[in-house]
Amino acid sequence: MDFSDKHIRPNYGILTVLMVGAFISFLNNTLLNVALPSIMTELKVDPSTVQWLTTGFMLVNGILIPTTAFLIEKFTVRRLFLVAMGLFTIGTILSGTAHVFSILLAGRMIQASGSAIMMPLLMNVMLVSFPVEKRGTAMGVFGLILMFAPAIGPTLSGWIIEHYDWRMLFHFITPIAAVVFILGFIMLKDKKEKVSLRLDFFSLVLSSIGFGGLLYGFSSAGNMGWGSPYVYGTIIIGILSLTWFIIRQSKLDIPMLNFGVYRYPMFALASAITMVVNMAMFSGFLLLPIYAQTILRISPMDTGLMLLPGAILNAIMSPINGRLFDKFGGRILATVGLAITTVTTYFFSQLTFETTYTHLVILHAVRMFGMSMVFMPVSTNGLNQLPRNLYPHGTAVNNTLNQVSAAIGTGFLITLMSLKEESSIANLLKNIQGQPTEAQMGQIQLQGMLDGINFTFFVSTFLIFLALILAFFIKRAKQEEDITGKNKTNPGIKPTLAKS
């Protein structure tokens, strides 16, 4: 039975269970950042060690997400969801009971293995559960989860850290994860015909080294510097392995990850836009907390609250933008959203020591309002052009490249900020006669950091403007038929997930 049939009504109860599972796994991505200083103190580890709690999580995601296209084609939604939620729950329990860093890191990476499966799985279910003309609204609700969960993470984490031990970050998620697992076990009843697919092991090795190398290299550049052999060595190895991986996929009858999705122009355009915006978006998430806490001396809790109105506005607008997408298409939303994001990012490049808290809250909220019009409408329009057999591959490619572009953007922006900060401090020191006092040196360092932050936002403005130009080429996508003749499997889910 075809899910594009207008008489099929998706089972919203099951979709809700899947979305709650996705919500807590996405929330977990940013929940730990504020707690890192507390973990360093209690478990007696240095910054370069504790950062593996975030780097390791990202690496596991980058390695596993490319395999999700194969997993979705091979196994039922029920089995994948229960495995993903089970791994996430086990990892959460292990992390919450850890008294040494190695156990905490192991639990965190087990969490990541479940989280990596969850997002592509839910996106694929959304694509096959709704017809094209209603897909924007559905994906808008999905976007609410995607953007809102990570955005409230720092605020929620700050409140918990102020009142409880850092382990409570895991303890409060554990019962929710357990309940979602039980509900999934009871409610999910989909079946799938036996599929004779085998994973190409060498492709898995190349993918892991390729994406893992890129993610590790770029995410380490901010701490180690671009001159470190660990940074440029892993990036070079990653690029070579990834090139080999892509060439190999083009020669396989049933590739692990089908890069043929880029033959569809709207998908390729959507991928380019989201990657560029993803790189620039991290300027806000990364630099604003540094500016607020270091230069304006705002507490971590108040910094989280500063970002919260933007997150709430983004969440509210996501379903609304989904409905607008169904009615008007993606180009209008994307161009308006990117224009707003370009202007607000430029204003963020004009920060001073006197910038008020209210100004930051409003500017960030307006920026997030613009962002809300970009990601889901652009991605959904691109995915809409793909034939159904390529949905798992399209979602896997999108999610993998989002991870990679975020790592590249973070490494690139931190480097720009550091270089500008160093040159600014050097110029300021030239204007001082003799040895600067401790107070003067402190003020010079703050001014250098401010110059670095402003310069990085300025560069981000140009990146987003580039995405704005690309957005004018968006056209409303029509689903293509599968003309490859190689589709021997049904990537979707059986009609037991729908109500007639």
Report on this model:
With 500 residues, the protein is mainly alpha-helical. It folds into three domains: 189 residues, MFS general substrate transporter like domains (Growth Hormone, Chain: A, Up-down Bundle), CATH 1.20.1250.20; 53 residues; 218 residues, Up-down Bundle (Growth Hormone, Chain: A). It is built from 19 helices and two strands. A two-stranded antiparallel sheet has the order 1-2. Helix 1 runs antiparallel to helix 7. The N terminus and C terminus are likely disordered.
SSE order, one letter for each helix or strand: EHHHHHHHHHHHHHHHHHHHE
CATH domain topology of the largest domain: Growth Hormone, Chain: A
Query: What's the level 1 CATH class of the largest domain?
Result: Mainly Alpha
Q: Would you identify the CATH H-level superfamily of the largest domain? A: MFS general substrate transporter like domains
Tell me the β content: under 5%
End-to-end C-alpha gap = 10 Å
Contiguous runs where pLDDT drops below 50 for at least 5 residues: 1-7, 484-500
* CATH architecture designation of the largest domain: Up-down Bundle
Instruction: Give the quaternary arrangement of the chains.
Output: single chain
Q: What's the alpha carbon Rg, rounded to whole Å?
A: 23 Å
Give the overall shape: globular
